[in-house]
Structure formats: structure tokens, C-alpha cells
Design a protein that fits this description.
two-stranded parallel ribbon, alpha/beta, single chain, Nucleotidyltransferase, domain 5, 139 residues
Amino acid sequence: MPQLSKSTQTSLSEINMVPFVDVVLVLLIIFMITAPILQSGIEVDLPKTHTVKEITEQRLVITLDKSQRIYLGNEPVNIHDLGAKVRSQLRRPQDAVFLRCDETVPFGSFAMVVDTLRQSGVTNISIVTEPLSDRPRTR
């Protein structure tokens, strides 16, 4: 009896896109969750104001958190070393410095940081705030 050979091997002519789409969506979700965290590593509740100017340029950022710790960028700094470190990182003395301060910090601590910056020769200090929303805050 003659046997007919059947070929069961077929070539894969198209790529299965479902696993690719799954991986891309998972990566998109991961980036969406981590992007706000990467923006600033120090958690600060900024004061809310009606007039807020959008920040477009990269500047030196000084942060004063709830515990009244001072950060230059993301590095903690002693108040006594702040002036020298800011001067060493500024390109020109007239460059602006952004000051982020938690809204619960006493004004005396805020004024001490501003005074330290002024004594070190920084004259252009911009205070970072958030836009005032119409919804009341819930805590």
C-alpha cells in the first residue's frame, strides 16, 4: 500500500502582536506611576496661590521639608553650608534659585533660608507654589 506523506509543518508567516502589546502596556503603566516620583524625590506640600507661573527652565532648587530639613537638589545640606554650596553651583550670581517650602514650615525657618541665600550673594530667589484649586482639601 502506498503511503501519502502529509506535511504537518507550516511556516509562521505573521508575528503574534498580543505579547508585544501586553509588554508595552505594562511598561506604559510603570512609567506613568514612576514619572511623578522622579520629578522630585522630596515630598513637600507647597502653598497654594492664585498666581502661578509655569516653570520651563532648569534651575537650582532648594527644598525645605516638613521637618525643616534643607535640601540642595536632592541632597541634604546644613544651613551653615548652604550659601557656599549654592555659590559653587550657580553659573552666574544673577541666576535664579527656586525655593520650595512646605506650607507647614514656620515663617522663621523660611526667612532664615532666604536670609542665608541673600548673604551668600543670591538676589534672584523664586518661591515655588501650586495653583489654588476650587475643591477643598481633605485630610
